[in-house]
Specification:
single chain, 204 residues, alpha+beta, Umud Fragment, subunit A, eight-stranded antiparallel sheet, four-stranded antiparallel sheet, 12 strands, 28% strand
Length: 204
């Protein structure tokens, strides 16, 4: 019975490096195309998501599908969002109607509350969508009657191929109310599952 030749230490090392390289390439490919982990960076999505919680973000639907109202999305906001800069001057009683033309390098996570063509205003931290107060539709949020952006009664129209993003913690979220709509091309993916901490594991 023939015996296989013993592999040299150098050959074993090359094999190990190749396996690690392939595994790393696959992991990076999966993150780039399919699923990416994301850490919640603030309290803006409380009570749905808390600071430090971790979610898996699915990236396929943004490439082949359309966003829907209620989706929790990771995205690139307009440049200047970290300074709450709107892209146009607007009345104090209206939400920001247009973001800056360039995208930020930061990643945000918020909920889609309006789509292109929708009319949106804000009352006591709740969305008024096309003239209808979204009370039952927003049972999961933490409303706020008194924050600076919680009462914006002058409605605006969401531009073509854009979405309006708001945090569920309406009194503690810097979002589209201040820095405007987000082009759909700037959406990274939809948050599907939370995997950390163990006490909050589940779907979104």
């Amino acid at each position: 019975m023939a015996r296989g030749s013993k592999q040299s230490p150098a050959g074993s090392l090359i094999e190990l490096v190749s396996i690690v390289a392939v595994a790393l390439g696959l992991a990076l490919g999966i993150q780039a195309v399919l699923v990416k982990p994301f850490r919640i960076p603030s309290e803006s999505m409380v009570p749905t998501l808390v600071d430090g919680q971790r979610v898996l973000v699915e990236r396929v639907s943004t490439r082949f599908g359309e966003p829907a109202r209620g989706d929790v999305m990771v995205f690139k906001p307009p440049e200047g969002a970290d300074d709450n800069a709107c892209g146009v001057r607007h009345p104090q009683g209206s939400p920001c109607a247009k973001g800056t033309d360039e995208q930020s390098e930061m990643n945000f996570i918020k909920r889609v509350v309006a789509l292109e063509g929708d009319r949106i205003a804000i009352r006591r931290g709740r969305v008024i969508l096309n003239g209808e107060l979204q009370r039952e539709e927003e049972e999961f949020i933490r409303p706020d009657a008194g924050c600076a952006t919680c009462n914006l009664p002058q409605a605006i129209t969401i531009p073509k191929d854009s979405v309006y993003m708001m945090g569920d913690n309406r009194g503690q979220s810097a979002d589209s109310r201040e820095w405007g709509p987000v082009p759909e091309d700037w959406l990274i993916g939809k948050a599907r599952v939370t995997y950390w901490p163990p006490s909050r594991i589940g779907g979104l």
